[in-house]
Amino acid sequence: MTTIYLIRHAEAEGNYFKRIHGQYDSPVTALGRQQIACLEQRFADIPVDAVYSSDLRRTCQTAEAITMPKGLPLHREPLLREIHLGEWEDQPFGAVMRTQMDQMIQFQQGVLSWSAPGGESISRVRERMETALRKIIGENPGKTVAVFSHGTAIRNLLTRLLHRPETPEGYLPEGNNTAVSCLEAEGDEIRVKWYNDSSHLTAEILAAAVKPDQGRGQRERVQGFPELLWFRPWDPEAGAEYYLACRSEGWLSSHGTMDRFNGPAFLAAARAHSRFNPAAVQVVMSCDVPAGILEMDYEKGAEEGVGAIAFYYVDPAHRKHGCGAQLLGQAVSDYRAMGRRCIRLRCAPENEQALRFYRRQGFERIGMDADAPVPLYQMERPL
Q1: Residue 273 has pLDDT above 50, yes or no
Q2: Dihedral through CA 372, CA 374, CA 377, CA 381, nearest 10?
Q3: CB-CB contact of 43 with 57 (8 Å)
Q4: CATH number of 229-382
Q5: Burial of 309 (0-12, 13-18, 19+ CB in 10 A)
Q6: Could you tell me which residue, 222 or 170, shows the higher pLDDT?
Q7: Cα separation of 161 and 180, whole Å?
């Protein structure tokens, strides 16, 4: 009998930034690394003969929980990849939900014929995942194997193996990041012994993690979530008043005073950034309500491989709902596509709340901005 431990990858940028990452290749997050450490402890005393993984970075990183301590090679198998989501890849969930609600509902329901525009169908995912599994079993008769894959891919494989009805109610729920399922194979039969177990994760890590949708109707899962944002280009004329209001509130909350605030200079710089590329200055949208500004300076630091953020602002009404992370996700998406090596921004030393947020996102202080009219830290995060 061959035993298979089927494991979902740790939390990755798509989960955290609330972006659609099927085969878009993104790394695990800081919380994901904590989940990997818990997974390593879980498997410390479990003999494993071989380790297979999707060839995407987030699964390969998660597989190190077993390969590194046990000294095993990693077999990369492209058939274990997540569903390919075509034109949806690396789009904010909020943007797709706003324009393609019915398509998103069909995706959530596991409709077999469904595919994103230019993407892969649910039925194709089920077929290739079973093909990959049977190939791995055939290469490892009588052994114990760890197999690392992705949320939707695993969900569909388990739904197929359990012979669940092809209805929304029959579609198996998605497990947490690093959730483990156990399969047993003998001859042509593959049995699901248990599935979606994440008991190795501490209560603190479970509380911090992005949860799979549970307990809501399909339309409620994808409609009207104020924390799921989308982005639109800023209008330098019609949007000037809103931009200055954001700049003013941001300055006051950062410095505690309006001394040395220069609204006309900030507005002129934003207009210059927008003229260079309209995508550089974006209005953050929650449903149809403006919720902030993301202003990037595509030219500054470009020769050094730096992606500069000139203004990073979330309206107070939308703070502490995961919105700040989604702004970073948009900047990461833009600058990674340009081949930049890092993101750089500035923060007031007295703005402790913002400093804590940036440090959680992986930013480190690299010095002071000598050209700023007030003291500002220079902070950098690798891409």
Answers
A1: yes
A2: -50
A3: no
A4: 3.40.630.30
A5: buried
A6: 170
A7: 15
